[in-house]
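S., here's the first fold you wanted:
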Amino acid sequence: MRYGYWMPVFGGWLRNIEDEHMEASWSYVKKLTQRSEVLGYDLTLIAELNLNDIKGPQAPSLDAWSTAAALAAVTEKIELMVAVRPTFHLPALLPSRLRTLTR
């Protein structure tokens, strides 16, 4: 069995709780991902969303592609998966974007 989690790119995923004590920041997701590796998690799924539809469009949100690329540089074994939105990218261009994330 493999274990993973959704990366809190919005600082959490709950609509009815204003502050889940998870920041939508590079320092928080870096620390979370590195700790997840130590604990033995296998993967994290990073949602590709351009605005924070959970906490509101004015709230902070991390970009999935730059977050995944930055995490690849500071982690060793955790699998970083970007949840690609269907019809959001041209199919011919998506593979070249994915190649930038290889370790």
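And the second, which I think is the more interesting of the pair:
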Amino acid sequence: MWLAVGIARPADTALSKTLQAIEDRYNHAQTLQISFSEGYTAQGKTWKPESGVLFLRKPGRMRWQYESPKGKLFLSDGKFVYLVVPDSKRVQKMKAKESEDMRAPLAFLLGRLHFEKDFQNYQSRPEGADTWITAEPKSPDLVYTKVEFQVTPQMQIRRLLVTGQDHSVRDFHFDQERLNPPLDSKLFRFELPPGAMLEESVN
């Protein structure tokens, strides 16, 4: 059975304490390294999962280094984000603020997780030793309508499902999490691949 907890703010219950513990775990970390697998389903079609290693460093720096497909890279240096796609000579570049629509469901990775500020209509259910938490964004103007977190007893987010306005679903699996590992600043500096062209967003 799903347990509904409040419309805007979870009450002082076990779920409320769980949400606070998740925030404390990720918001207090300065760096994070974690393996990920990302699936995508839309209009009844499921795309081949992609996977790799994610490196994060406050404030706002992240490097999604894909192992499948090999050579794909999504990098943020805190001001701009860059997307490198294998077999393409064009590299997409845009201001980091223009990509903020996906930051709320992934805010725990960036150390900016604020459940009360960003979400409402909480529900939870147990799954073995883990807990599934479902919530809706407070803002109706975002590209997603629902997020679902699978949380371990150690308050580690093991899985994240993001449902879009178009009913698409992004499915993230996380593993081998390391909090506060030493990360070289060079990981978050973008270097244009040889022969590639930079394609900047005009927005």
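Why I say that: The mean pLDDT is 87. The radius of gyration is 17 Å.

Talk tomorrow,
H.
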